[in-house]
Amino acid sequence: MKRRRIHVGLRTVKTAVAIIIAMVLVEPYGATSSRLILAMLGAMAAVQPTFKESLESCVTQTVGVLFGVAAGVILVALPTGPLASVLIGIIFIITIYNLLPDAFSPSLPCFILVMVCTDAEMAPIPYALGRIWDTAIGLAVGMAVNMLIFPYDNSRQIRETVDGLDRDLILFLEDMFDGDAHLPDADAMNKRIASLENQLSIFANQHLLLHMGRRRRELTRYKACEYKARELVSHLEVLSQLDRPGRLSEANRRRLAACGARVEDRRELDSVMEKDVVTNFHVSQILTLRQELLETLSGH
Question: In a 10 Å sphere around its CB, with 0-12 CB exposed, 13-18 middle and 19+ buried, how is residue 205 labelled?
């Protein structure tokens, strides 16, 4: 089994801070268990990696509270006992939620339903409005903390992914021209591309109050990096389909050496065959795209 290192991330700390602030704000209204729980759930839900995810989480939480409140108020008004009301309500809520996207969970509305239906001393409508208010406080605090206190920025991860892509490229070319009959495949490169695409998706969904223009320019640059990386991998895949690579030209040997790649294939290009032309064309394109990729990433 792999050992997992204990790591307290920034989002963990922000979540804890948001919960404490939400609980403090709920305190003046009478900090009952249900109030604190709903404020806590709202704060936790709103602290997500991106603004889009935080907003979606706020929507699902709000819908859950409203749905649970509406179901509870309606069932309390019916001539059924508390347990029968809970039974009917839970079946109804889960059935409806099964029709909704996976982001919507029936847990919160079921919790609200049970609280409304099982307390005979409670005034259903004031209680329901109070729970909406408690959740709104938690969501607002979570959103504020998430956006204003060290907002998540995965620019470093994007750069590290591109750096890893470059390292994999050099290893691929070394393996391609190591002089043996075994040819590499582009699986590692494709994994890097998938990771880059995921990181770009996260970056695109980050909406900050400040520096929006700068982040749009950065996103455009990173998207250009992704496009060049995909084009580069397409050339690698062509090379990996050859039964054996052709002989390298002196120009490509020099360019590979300048990139730090060790070329063990010593075959001289004393005559030109079709496979040599194909190989040198794709190697030249790969090295050009690599240079353009690194220059685009650095902003030059």
Answer: middle
Whether 223 and 293 have beta carbons less than 8 Å apart is answered as no
- Tell me the residue type at 1: M
Identity (one letter) of the amino acid at 50? Answer: T
Structurally, the chain folds into a number of domains equal to 2
The length of the chain in residues reads 300
What is the C-alpha to C-alpha distance for residues 199 and 156, in angstroms, rounded to an integer?
Answer: 10
Domain of 250 in residue numbering reads as 155-298
Q: What CA–CA distance (Å, rounded) separates 241 from 254?
A: 24
Same domain, 56 and 16: yes
Of the pLDDT bands very low, low, confident and very high (cuts 50, 70, 90), residue 284 is: very high
Region label for 273, one of left (φ > 0), alpha (ψ between -120 and 50) or beta (otherwise): beta
Over the range 59-97, which residues count as b (16 or more CB within 10 Å of their CB) and which as e? ebbbbbbbbbbebbbebbeeeeeeeebbebbbebbeeeb
Alpha carbon distance 243, 241 (integer Å): 6
| 3-class secondary-structure state, position 269 | coil
At 83, list the tokens. Answer: 């347990």
DSSP state of 102: T
Where do the H-state alpha helices sit in 32-81? 33-46, 51-77
pLDDT tens for 140-178 read: 888 888 777 777 777 788 888 888 888 888 888 888 888
CA distance 74 to 68: 10
Indicate whether 159 and 142 sit together in one domain. no
Percent residues over pLDDT 70 in the chain: 91
CA distance 118 to 257: 76
Claim to verify: residue 144 and residue 226 sit in the same structural domain: no
**Residues with Cβ within 8 Å of residue 17, at least 6 apart in sequence:** 145, 149
Does some domain include residue 64? Answer: yes
SS3 183: coil
